[in-house]
Amino acid sequence: MIVGLTGGIGSGKSTVAGLFSKLGIEWVDLDIVARQVVERGEPALTAITQRFSATIPSIQNANGELNRTALRHYIFQHPDEKAWLETLLHPLIQKRSQMLLSKTQSPYVLLISPLLFEKNTPTDKSISIDVDKATQISRATSRDGNTPEQIKRIMATQLSRQERNQRADYIIDNSHSLSDTERQVYAIHQMLISLL
Ligand code: ATP
Question: Are 65 and 40 in contact (CB under 8 A)?
């Protein structure tokens, strides 16, 4: 059974995944997979470099890694190029995540993605992590030094809290203490186990 775990930026996906890990539940994070498929030596990095080196001279950092920030800014302004990139990466991300999922051994496995519903990722069940906007912005800014404006721009590309919660089978309210969230994780874990 594959259980999608989603939530906006800074909502607590990694934190909640860690709580499921304590219960022996494995997970695959699609953001991590998306980074792995463009690592140095990967054919996708060669394809991206060939496509963008003329328009983005700094497409690779000095150490030969993909300059994700430069690419993100460029495709934000060029929707056709964004579509080209997504066509390239989507099957690679899917193939790699399938391979990682097939290696897991826990009773069910979490598939973590901020864009689970936006991308219509197929899962058997889904969990939405819910926090109010102000908490989300303050946690996300204090974690990695982004400005509230940067966080709000990313939030604008993600489903609203209401839409995400409506589409999920289970909701975790992560606006309180970690022990409160842990209690909710445990209750959902019990429900998921009872479905197997
Ligand atoms: P992203 O989408 O950016 O990858 P995320 O959804 O994985 O983020 P986390 O990194 O888990 O979110 O959490 C964001 C920040 O909020 C982290 O610094 C984390 O420690 C903190 N945090 C998460 N849950 C709580 C909580 N219940 N109480 C206090 N702080 C929390």
Answer: yes
Residue nearest atom 21 in ligand 1 by C-alpha distance: 139
Does the pLDDT of residue 185 top 90, yes or no?
yes
Same domain, 60 and 150: no
Per-residue pLDDT at 144: 79
Do the annotations mark residue 10 as ligand-binding?
Answer: yes
Non-local (6+) Cβ contacts of 193 within 8 A are: 107, 108
Structural domain ending residue among the three candidates 81, 99, 117: 99
Range(s) of the domain holding residue 164: 1-25+106-196
Pocket test for ligand 1, best of 6, 14, 113, 155 (most atoms within 8 A of CB): 14
Query: Residues 142, 181: one domain?
Result: yes
Using CA atoms, how far apart are residues 153 and 122, in angstroms rounded to an integer?
26
Q: Are 70 and 8 in a shared domain?
A: no
User: pLDDT tens digit string along 41-61?
Assistant: 999 999 999 999 999 999 999
121/179 same-domain check: yes
Residue written as tokens 């309210």? 173
R_g over Cα of the chain = 18
